[in-house]
Design a protein that fits this description.
By secondary structure, the protein is α+β, with helices and mostly antiparallel strands. The protein has four helices and eight strands; from the N terminus they run ααββββββββαα.
Length: 185
């Protein structure tokens, strides 16, 4: 390569690089939105008043397991803070407004054997749709646990799955869980 060719290549490079940067900046400014992207919606003001919940009497074993479970629950459910409950602080928990509730030590659910049970993160649940909420109840645990998710929240199972790890860690699985619960821990 001779001296004049090398000098022409250097001049071309010296012109091309700044020109490419200018084109990139102009393109960025031309095609970028005028306003910053909207932040994800945040919940409105959250109630902090106690949530009305019943507290049925628990056997000593159920009380021990429920206390262990409640001690492992998160303080927030996604961005919904935990709220006080009117009764059964050792067996009940509530989150957000409207409240998503967890009740430990409820009577075992009864449902037709043909009803579907679902495995969410190694915990087996039976779902029942009510007019204003979806009620999910564990069917593979020594002590049944019920989570009620108001219809204002989408995908009830996605709100329930957060409780799987604390349930697995504190409430033993039944020796013979219902069929359809294969794979539960």
């Amino acid at each position: 390569m001779d001296r004049s060719t090398r000098q022409a290549a250097l001049i071309a490079t010296a012109v091309a690089i700044p020109l490419a940067v200018i084109v990139a900046l102009v393109s960025f400014w031309q095609f970028s939105p005028d306003e910053p992207a909207a932040a994800p919606p945040t919940p409105g003001p959250q109630a902090t008043t106690p949530v009305r919940m019943a507290a049925p009497a628990l056997s000593p074993r159920a009380e021990t397991l429920c206390r262990a479970l409640l001690s492992q629950l998160p303080t927030t459910l996604r961005d919904r803070p935990q709220r006080p409950v009117t009764e059964g602080q050792e067996q009940n928990a509530a989150y957000g407004d409207p409240a998503i509730t967890l009740a430990c030590g409820i009577p075992a659910p009864t449902f037709p054997p043909t009803d579907l049970v679902s495995l969410f993160d190694r915990v087996c649940w039976h779902a029942a749709d009510k007019a204003d909420a979806t009620v999910l109840t564990t069917v593979d645990r020594e002590v049944p646990i019920q989570v009620t998710v108001p219809k204002t929240y989408e995908a009830a199972a996605q709100w329930t799955i957060v409780f799987s790890k604390p349930i697995i860690e504190t409430v033993p699985k039944l020796a013979t869980p219902p069929s359809g619960c294969a794979g539960s821990a």
